[in-house]
Structures are given as structure tokens and as C-alpha cells.
Task: structure prediction
Amino acid sequence: MELIFLLSSQFKQFEKMEITDNIIIYEAYDFPHFLMQPFYSDYVGIVICHQGMFRFCVDGTSFVASMGETVFLSPGILFHVQEVSADFRYTLLFYRVEQILHMLGNTVVSMRLYSTLYPQSCTVAHTGYEEMLTSYARMLLNLEQKEKHDTYSLHEQKLLLMAVTYRLCSIFSASFQKEGKEMRRKIETFEMLVKLIEENFMRERSVAFYADQLCLTPKYLSVIVKSVCGKTVQQLIFKAIIRRSIYLMKNTNMTIQQISSDLSFPNASSFGTFFKKHTGLSPKNYRMGAE
Result:
């Protein structure tokens, strides 16, 4: 597992960064270079703004976060930091939920976590848990920067990520509860849809298929999904395809042609066009950058 450490002494304090295959932790005054340009993130993301403000873009929409606010980012987005104030200070934690899903031991619980964890691509809010989330990030950073990793420290890391994940779900579940019974029913339908997409996206891409499985019309299913997460059913399917594409490119020796065939694309060219449209990079360039 590749580890990268970046330390600098701006303002006579250390800026700390840790990158592995499954986690990125950064506590600093400036964002790293790769986030100052469009970055396709397949991580759950948290950015806690301790001081100042920063302006950023998610999937083409602009946002601003100020002191005391937390930015929540869902996986499968294009994230681009555009501007930071001179007094800016923040803590960032990006991690992949997949590495801890097996610890849940319950498909229903894991799908609820997956689907309620940031249904919106981006949310900026003051939660009252900023200090707690920062503490989790610092503990994870300390664990990652140990010279030796034993079985206990690796398990401790996963337990901390579990704690972060449950806290995030608690934050978002509380906001859903305020919406009443109608929204809760919509969320239940949304959760069932997410599960169906995870099971079928490699072969089934039509909204009609998923609507039929849920005994709904395609139009009504689209209305429900839009009200819960702000995205279309098609966008959720495409996110699943991109997530799987990235996994195969990073973790296998499959050729682009083999990946396109595995994902039911007619040829590598159509897969390449699809991938570049959603990530800004060709499959070849993405794979080269990930190596």
C-alpha cells in the first residue's frame, strides 16, 4: 500500500497529510494540488472548515463553506477547489466505505448506511459535531503515520471508520426524521432502489427495469429519487458503473477492452467516451494517474 507524507511549517505549525488506497487525511491551511483541479472522488468526503472560507465546485455546481461548517461529499463526484481565504484552516477526511461494509454483518443495515450516507452529492452545514469529526480524523492520522502496522492497529482503524460512518448516518438520519412519514417512505424506496442497482447495474441500465422491480411507474420512481437525492435514476446507475470501472482499473490487470465487455459496453470506444464524460479523463489516462 502506497503511503505519501507531506509536512510543511506554514504559520510555524505542521501541515499533515496521509494518503493510502482507502483513506486520505489532511490537516492544513492549503489544499493539495490534486484538489485544486477537477478530481474524481470515489471516497466519502468530509471537510471541516475551522477558520476562514473556501469556494469549490461539485459536479459543476458552486458551493461556499465558512468557519464552523462541514462539507459532506458523496462518492462518485467531480470535486474542484477554486478559492481559499488567506486565513483558511481545515481538516479533511476522505475514505472508502467499502473497506468496512463487511464488518456490519447485515445487508439491510449496510444498504441503509450506503443509501443514507449523503444522498446529495454535496451538503454544507453546521452540525454541532465538527469537533468530534476532527478528533476522529486526527486519531486516524496518528494511526496511519505509525511506522509499524499490526493486526490490532489495522482493526482499530476500521473501528474508527465505523464510528465516523455511524456518526454521519446519525447526522443525516436526524435531518430525514424532520421531513415526516412521507419522506421516510421515499427514503425506504430509495434504499431498495440502491440495492437493486448494486445487484443489476452491470447488465440493466434502463429506468423501466428498476421501476418494474419496485412496482412503480418510471415517472414516479424518478420523482421519488429526485426528491431524496437530487439526482435521476440514470445518474445513480451511471455512478455505479463508474465506481466499478475505477475498481477494475485500479485493482486488476484487465485491459480496457475486457473492462468494457465486463460492463456490457459494445466496445472499448463507447466505454471510453462514457468514462471520460463522467470523470473528465480517458480510461487510459485515469489508469496511468492511479499507478
